[in-house]
Amino acid sequence: MASPRAPRGMHDTLPEDADLWRHIRDTAERVARLFDYQQITTPIVEDASVFLHTAGDESDIVQKEVYLFDDRGGDRLALRPEGTAAVCRAYIEHGMSSRPQPVRLFYFGPFFRYDRPQAGRYRQLWQFGAEAIGTDSPAADAELIDLQLTLYRELGLEGLTLRINSIGTAETRRRYAEVLRAHFEPHIGTLSRDSQRRFETNILRILDSKEDLEHPAVQSAPSILEHLSDEDREHFEAVQTHLRALGIAYEIDPRIVRGLDYYARTVWEVEPPGAGGQSTIGAGGRYDGLMEILGGPSTPAVGFATGIERVALNMRERGLWQAASEHVEVVTVPLGDGGTAFAAKATRILRDAGISVRSGLAGRSMRAAMRGAEASGATWALIVGDREAEAGVVQLKPMRAEADQREVRLDDLVSAIRELR
RNA sequence: GUGGGUGUGGCCUAGCGGUUAAGGCGUCAGGUUGUGGCCCUGAAGAUCGAGGGUUCAAAUCCCUUCACCCACCCCA
């Protein structure tokens, strides 16, 4: 009986929201081009293996968040839960390793995760992301961070915190996990249930548990930074050197980890002040291992993604965006059959001249039509009755200024408006 | 996935066991002959998220379910 609603965790973007979204997207694309990143658009669905094999079997994405389905031909497809793996698939498929390296790409689009919705977390979410593929240079890591922070600055978001960490290579993490296992083993009974689960599934995650934040064993846990290889450490220090050269402030947070297996070395997150639950507005990292998992040649790469809903949320909270949509310039008020026909003619002429016009529909009383004209927010009302039609003129009435209404010949209408606006 | 909160016309809210569910905003129409914004009048629009149950009687109590919100988990 109940009318259908948008699927859980998915939302319509109404006209009053569209302007903010367009502004964010336009700004993101502009900033990307400032850094010479080029747009890539990949399908919203991929062969399921693109995500399932790359994310790591223990990750939540694989365990429960991917929308999976078989199409009519029996192919196993997935709604994309993230962008990086899809971009890498495209990189391999189109032989981009034969382009000048690194290949700098950005994307903007919807992603899907079957997750329990809450503020700032949706089942359909939009992300802007950028990737530099084909370089292990720490300068590339810093460049992506710079691009990301530039975007936030251009949007007016200030006071953000950049936290960075190095999680080393997969090999480094294997060794570190052993160290952690030895460290937590004696305390496992006193840890929270979640941490006990993580002890088995992803022991690094115990470190950023909110529940066990104050637990002495967590406080005293060895830092991954002490277990980096020499190459890892040099890379991480070089990233920091580049950041300082760019004048970018950062905090080192050894507790940042990642759910996805293909990450390596640098990882980072950006949070707004007063961070609460779903607060991270963007995060990035290096993923040197991903290409090989996808069957391509070993190719180092680094990138980030930022959540558009979370960016929009922050902008609204800080009053950086008031719903101030652009109004149409002209609204017509047609009266009578002759007036209606003549108004249509005037409308055509104005639109051909690039002037936006909202057609007032015939058949209403003039009072009603004028009320509608008022509500449209238009700068001018164009009143066209049979009298005007016969004389070849229109009444041009300013709706927002104190100036008088004036009669204008149809031939002079465009120039009259251009002169006055 | 776990725990908690909320759910009344498009929006905000009143009503919290008992006659036809009230108000504001918004929408539409009208306020004499071709002119808006203020004001006035009127209209449309709610089986009170949905489905069960208790009761002579339920928007009001109970159960289930769905959705949203908050925290955890995870992540953007």
Explain what the structure shows:
The protein folds into two domains: 15-169 and 229-317, BirA Bifunctional Protein, domain 2 (2-Layer Sandwich), CATH 3.30.930.10; 330-416, Anticodon-binding domain (Rossmann fold). The mean pLDDT is 90. It is elongated. It is built from 15 helices and 16 strands. It is of the alpha+beta class. The longest helix has 20 residues, at 15-34. The structure holds one RNA strand of 76 nucleotides.
Can you describe this structure in just a few lines?
With 421 residues, the chain is α+β, with helices and mostly antiparallel strands.
Q: Quick check: average pLDDT?
A: 90
Number of helices: 15
Beta-strand content bin: 15-25%
Largest sheet: 8 strands, mixed
CATH class of the largest domain, named Alpha Beta
Ranges where pLDDT stays below 50 over 5 or more residues in a row are: none
Number of domains: 2
- The side-by-side strand order for the widest beta sheet comes to 1-5-6-11-10-9-7-8
CATH architecture of the largest domain: 2-Layer Sandwich
The general outline is: elongated
As a whole number of angstroms, the C-alpha radius of gyration is 28 Å
Helix content: 25-40%
- Strand element count: 16
CATH superfamily of the largest domain: Bira Bifunctional Protein, Domain 2
Structural class: alpha+beta
CATH-assigned fold name of the largest domain: BirA Bifunctional Protein, domain 2
What is the rounded distance between the termini?
52 Å
Which descriptors apply to this entry?
eight-stranded mixed β-sheet, elongated, BirA Bifunctional Protein, domain 2, 2 domains, RNA-binding, single chain, Rossmann fold, 421 residues
